[in-house]
Structure formats: structure tokens, C-alpha cells
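Troubleshooting log. The previous structure file for this entry was overwritten by mistake, so regenerating from the original sequence record. Sequence copied from the archived sheet and checked twice against the printout by T.R.
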Amino acid sequence: MDLPEFMSAVRITGHGGPQVLELAEVPVPAPQPGEVLVKVSAVALNNTDLWTREGAYGRPGAPKTLSGWRGPIDFPRIQGADVAGRVVAVGAGVTRSLVGRRVVVDPAIYDTEGPEANPVGLMGSERDGGYAEYVTAAAERAHDMTGSPLTDDQLATLPTAYGTALGMIERGRLQEQETVLVSGASGGVGLALVQIARARGARVLAISSGSKIEAVREAGAHEVIDRAGDIPQQVRTAAPKGIDVALDVVAGELVGEGLPLLREGGRWVIAGALGGYGVAFDVRRLYLHNAQVIGSAMHTPRHFDLLMDLARRAQVQPVIAATFALNQAAQAQEELSRRAHVGKIIMHPGIPLPARSER
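Regenerated output below.
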């Protein structure tokens, strides 16, 4: 197919508020050797979009320094880690049979080759992402999802939220019939954790509040803990023998309050800091009970392969909260920051669309 020379893209021109988001006409990127060019059908928003834009990640020894996901950002930067679309061109050394295939892009930049590589960069932060009509990606990171019954919007929700969730579950070694506590359960990662943990055969306790409680229960939680109440007491009532694994995207005070709720040998897995990055806890609750606190940043290639297998069989059912057009990126990010929704927010490139609820 004949490709256009230019495309629409939304990029950040520096760290700051929504005003640093810029809609621009930029050249369509050419796939380099080993890469594919993907025409974006849908791109999902994540908290990392907000924090990268704001520079909220800090740096080692300087937590308040403005920074991208893993360090300084080259501006302007096209945002967007989560892409579903179709391959429309390939670079040298890539089979042309991929052209026309429906794909999901693994947005991670890894530190090495192999299935257990660690993510050290992210599309939309350390390289240009999918807030655009086209994006390039390494061919091995474009996973063929042509046969999946999930929609493009649902597929776009998977890479960061579900990839992060599966990485947490794998690193936490969650087993069938174990009891798991999920914080921030109404968000993208939280709902993914609930769905995947339930599919693993775990007993799922999920923390949420207000009007979101029923949606979290519908996603698969056996018990919903009301965030507005006494969380430790509610957990003790629901799981008097304690919890095996905590899957936590909130951190803050929850860590100190929650560690005593772990059973012997329990694991507390952290992949976010919505409640604050400064954490204090009684270290005796670790060594006297052989507990573990585990950090988890996204996924490995092996985890992502497992996730794509789940999606091909529709064993996860992502929830779409709302959709926006690409030129409504600022509104979409503001909606995300309000945290009043349940599920994922999606943007579509091309013709402007009115924002609409799909719940």
C-alpha cells in the first residue's frame, strides 16, 4: 500500500501539565532493519503517560527530580505505550508475510535478549510511542493477534496494565487456592490483577470504594474491601488466616498497615505508588515471618508471551471506560487523572470522535 508522507501525532514538548501536549504533523517513521511499521487502530492510556508527562518518576538519590520512566527524555516525545493495529510495512530482514497482520506491540525496551530480560525503557518515554497514526516496533515485539476474538480497543488495553499485572502475579508466585489482596482494584492494572488472579484459581480480595465496588466484583473479586473503611480489619474478617500474596499498586501507608496481614512466607508485590513512595514498616514483620517485599516493573518477554496466549483465547475481558480521538489527548489524560472511571481509556487516531462512555 502507498503510505502517506506525514501523520498526526501527539507529543510532549517538556515536562508539565496538559498544556505540554502538542498535536503535530510529523513524518511517518520508516521501519529500520528488523522493524515493522504499524498503523495504529487504538492506543490505551496509562498512569505512566501522566507521570512521564509530569516527570514524576524521579531518579536514584533524587526522588523529586523531573524524569521520564527511566531517566531524561528527549523532547519532543510522542507518548503512548499501548498499541493495537495492523502491520503495513516491514524493514530489511523482516518477512513480508507480517504485512496485514493484526498485532499488539510489546512496548518494553529490554536490557538483554532472552525470555527473562528486564524492561529498562518504555515506548512513549524512552522512544516514540503510539499517540500517532503510525508507529515502528521491533518485529519480535509485534505479536500476531489476528485470530483473537478481542476487539482492537480491548487488545490495546493489554500491554502495560495486563503486562504489569501478569508480571506481578508471576514474580509473586501466586498459586491456585491462595488468597490474594489487590489494591487499586478499579484501575487498569487493578482490574487486570483481579481477572488474572481469579483465572489462576486464587481467592481474590480487592480494595475499592464507592460506585466502583460492584464493577470490581463483576470483574471477579470474591470479596471487595471498602477503601473508605478500616482496611486491615476488613481483611482480617474476610481472611482470618491471612493473605498469601498482596498485589499492590498503591503503596504508601498500605504497606506498613498490610504487612502484618501476610501469612508465613507471604509475598507483598509492589508495582506503583499511587498512595505515596515514602513507605515505613516494621522490619520484624519481614524476617520473623519469612515474608518478602518484591518490586515489579512491568513484565518480561516470557510474561508477555503468556499474556498474548490468554488474549488469543479471550481468557481476559478488558473493560473499556471511554474513548477519545487523538486530538482529544489532553481531555483523555484529564479524565484519566480524575480516577472516576473503571477500566481503560482508549484513543483512536484519525477522524475526531466525541468522548463516550462504553460501560
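The first helix runs from residue 47 to 54. Archived copy saved in two places this time.
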